[in-house]
Amino acid sequence: MAEENRLRIGPKEGVTYPIQVVYCGNCTMPIEYCEYYPEYDRCKQWLEKNLPREFEKVKIGDNSDTAIGEEEKKRQKRGGKGIIKTKKKEEGPKQVCVSRAPRGKKKSVTVVTGLSTFDIDLKVAAKFFGQRFACGSSVTGDDEIVIQGDVKDDLFDVIPEKWSEIDEDFIEDLGDQKR
């Protein structure tokens, strides 16, 4: 009996080599693992359209349609290739705030916030400000760009000129701030 349970060396009987693995076009995983993907319904649609034979095999093993009244299957939350969740944009007032903050004794930086409410890419805006004012500029927070130097007064002309959807009325001067 001990000899029957031992692992055999070499190919298994009834298996053809090399093994062909079929990958899903939606989740890019082998089709056996599609059920663990958060968008399993899309995987099923892709299989039904492109690989009807494989779809029938998956459909036979799928018990979610026959189980009425049972709770929905819990999906794996960590690891693997999951759905990339987009951040919810706050539907607050659309306003760009410009302020100046001290940096050291005599130097200062200009802080611009609120550009992301107008769907402006902050990295592109920071690069634009750095080139326009010939200074350093970087994205420091969720919705904050820091420009080296005092360019607060120039921003009231530059921002509406570059982005036409931002009017001068949407730009607010917060004055001098502490960082």
TrEMBL record:
<dbReference type="GO" id="GO:0003729">
    <property type="term" value="F:mRNA binding"/>
</dbReference>
<dbReference type="InterPro" id="IPR048517">
    <property type="entry name" value="DENR_N"/>
</dbReference>
<dbReference type="GO" id="GO:0002188">
    <property type="term" value="P:translation reinitiation"/>
</dbReference>
<dbReference type="InterPro" id="IPR046447">
    <property type="entry name" value="DENR_C"/>
</dbReference>
<feature type="region of interest" description="Disordered">
    <location>
        <begin position="69"/>
        <end position="101"/>
    </location>
</feature>
<feature type="domain" description="SUI1">
    <location>
        <begin position="96"/>
        <end position="163"/>
    </location>
</feature>
<dbReference type="InterPro" id="IPR050318">
    <property type="entry name" value="DENR/SUI1_TIF"/>
</dbReference>
<dbReference type="InterPro" id="IPR005873">
    <property type="entry name" value="DENR_eukaryotes"/>
</dbReference>
<comment type="similarity">
    <text>Belongs to the DENR family.</text>
</comment>
<dbReference type="Pfam" id="PF01253">
    <property type="entry name" value="SUI1"/>
</dbReference>
<dbReference type="GO" id="GO:0003743">
    <property type="term" value="F:translation initiation factor activity"/>
</dbReference>
<feature type="compositionally biased region" description="Basic residues">
    <location>
        <begin position="75"/>
        <end position="87"/>
    </location>
</feature>
<protein>
    <recommendedName>
        <fullName>Density-regulated protein</fullName>
    </recommendedName>
</protein>
<dbReference type="Pfam" id="PF21023">
    <property type="entry name" value="DENR_N"/>
</dbReference>
<dbReference type="InterPro" id="IPR001950">
    <property type="entry name" value="SUI1"/>
</dbReference>
<dbReference type="GO" id="GO:0001731">
    <property type="term" value="P:formation of translation preinitiation complex"/>
</dbReference>
<dbReference type="InterPro" id="IPR036877">
    <property type="entry name" value="SUI1_dom_sf"/>
</dbReference>
